[in-house]
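Appendix B. Raw example, untouched.
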Amino acid sequence: MKGGAMQPRPFMMHGPGGPMPPPQQFGLTETRPPLAAMQRPRFNIPGLNPSAPANAAGKISSTYDLVESMRFLYVHVVKARDLPAASAAGSIDPFVEVKLGNYKGSTPIHAANHSPAWHQVFAFSATHLQSHLLEVAVRAKDLAGAGDDLVGRVAFDLSEVPVRVPPDSPLAPQWYRLEGRRGEKLHRGELMLSVWLGTQADEAFPDAWHSDAHGAASPQAVASTRAKVYFSPKLVYLRVAAIAAQDLIPHDASSRAMNASVKLQLANQIRRTRPGGPPGSPNPMWNEEFMFVASEPFDDPLFITVEDRVGPGRDEPLGRIILPLNQAMPRHDHYGKPVEPRWFSLLRPGDDSPDRKHPDHKFASKIQIRMSLDFGYHVLDESTYYSSDLQPSSKHARKPSIGILEVGVLGARNLIPIKAKDGRATDAYCVAKYGPKWVRTRTILNTLNPQWNEQYTWEVFDPCTVITVVVFDNSQIGAKNGGDARDEHIGKVRIRLSTLETDRVYTHFYPLLALKPSGLKKTGELHLAVRFTCTAWVNMIAMYGRPLLPKMHYSQPISVMQLDYLRHQATQIVSARLSRAEPPLRREVVEYTLDVGSHMFSLRRSKANFYRITSLFYGFAAMAKWYDGIRSWRNPITTMLVHMLFLILICYPELILPTIFLYMFMIGLWNYRYRSRHPPHMDTKLSQAEFTHPDELDEEFDTFPTNRPADIVRLRYDRLRSVGGRVQTVVGDLATQGERAHALLSWRDPRATAIFIFLSLVVAIVLYVTPFQVLMVIAMLYLLRHPRFRSRMPSVPFNFYRRLPAKSDLLL
């Protein structure tokens, strides 16, 4: 490797006739960039990498070695004191301007303050060091419009700036006397600041003003260009059961029979019961249970309203109650005592306070409610195929971490120009989501080949999870409509952790693909470095035998239709919470990352799932062809060997099962040499996206409900899409089950295949030494055992099978 240049090397896929090159347009390209992680062993060698923290065993737990080192000049402007007056009134509106060559940044203006404090950091990339002189000037804002008056300045020669290497202690700021235009020392005015040379590993890097974002006009746009870390709100399921009511009083004196129902509302989530019978009774019963998604802190109360149906689409309230969520009983598992229902007094319509007396009626209406906060569930806010977090909401039921995931966002190349109409290229940034942690890189302005070189770390609790990395264009830069422009997505990358080898650094250019109504388009390539480090091998191997979701999902399962509704509500809560952060992670960014709307019907996806299923039957066709070859004596030696094996198994039937498992063991070992050496990426052929008819794409990107003018066409079209979406899901699930069986011996998940072939060898030996009749008796007794001795939890083989990877990760 000369001069540290990258050496791209495309991976090779194995086809039926041997290795074949990938498609040139949508392929994955492996690289060998000059990274520290690829140049040295990952052990804490004294003096080799002083910034790498180590665990008790001396092995590095998290380092900043997956990205190329970038040099930055940091300027930390702290405060000023004793600034001279700049106006006849004796006041000054100061701000600091930091200038390096053609790049300059400024602090906010402090009105009428002679001793302002800013505490702001400026970072100039080494590629922008166009001058050897750094100038930090204190200026006064001239409100008359004549310009900015220079109060004083401090100049630095870059050759004398110290170098700081993390984790060194932060550089202490110092007081500097201000100088005039001619270099003379001023009698008044001092500025406290510090200047040093560092890398992107510096703790001042995320919150610094970057020279890459010097073109951002507004402070909001500047804030949106910085690197940030976000966390999803803690979500929990709220279970509410409306049981019955007593002594309901009609809202009028008419002789019409009451038809009471209950309306439950938590924030924007509204559910209703069916009318309680018998009609006209003041004591209706419903016995209906609903689930809501609540987020901590539990500020939103639950509104419960009893309504009377007086006409079609017209309900009159009979009474209501407002319950804070802290009155709900917390449940961390299903072993606790059952939640007891409680009676609550209803308020009459128009009553604002529960303390208000009602002299008009003698008895107070009541409603019986059972309410609990179920912390034992995991609140799904992602698609179950691409879930990155499977932990329960309860802190007490969470498992310890099994490893560390490190992702280095190196850069991108050949991005499409999003702002070509405005005379600009693309203002790109990346968003990565794994578990509750979201990360956002800084925005690189006006370039089609941005270089971020930022590294982030996540704790891993389950290897059978997926990390999602998305590239967006920052539309807030230069926005003309007040910053309400939507950030446009450029492409998405998903990586399943179970398909990665531990302690190996994967560096690839991942293709970024966008499916539009006009067709499939490659929007660029994202350069990532990924490493999965296991810190608890025993726990990780044991995870393959445990249920995928917490126990509450199996002991008290939630229906599929209800899960879809709850997932939609969870994504809305996460989007709303992250959009209120500073800087905000915009709603369109969160929804695209979480695959909101992926359940809608698509003829393209249905065809892709159909071909996934048909490809599973190729194995049966190959077996039939092999059998036909044996029967027709095309190869006499092979046919004779098959005859001999058949006669041996007939004479010794106890060898049938050991032979089958031994055969799978040998096939697994043979396929080891053909195991995949690259992480998965979007497969355009599998997604049926390369040659899709324009009419099918128009149907896929059509709104739901459709915007077709004819009412009859709209009804039929919506019904077709609704039914087709369910069929699409069922077909995809069938394909996933078959692909998991294929993954047993394909080394797609190296640990799962190793476990399976080892168990196959053990089972083969046990079946060889144990009489066949004994095995059959034990198997039948086990299958016909009494229900008392059966567990409601899934079995270990079932859990192992659920954790196997499938090709659903590769679908667009």
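End of appendix B.
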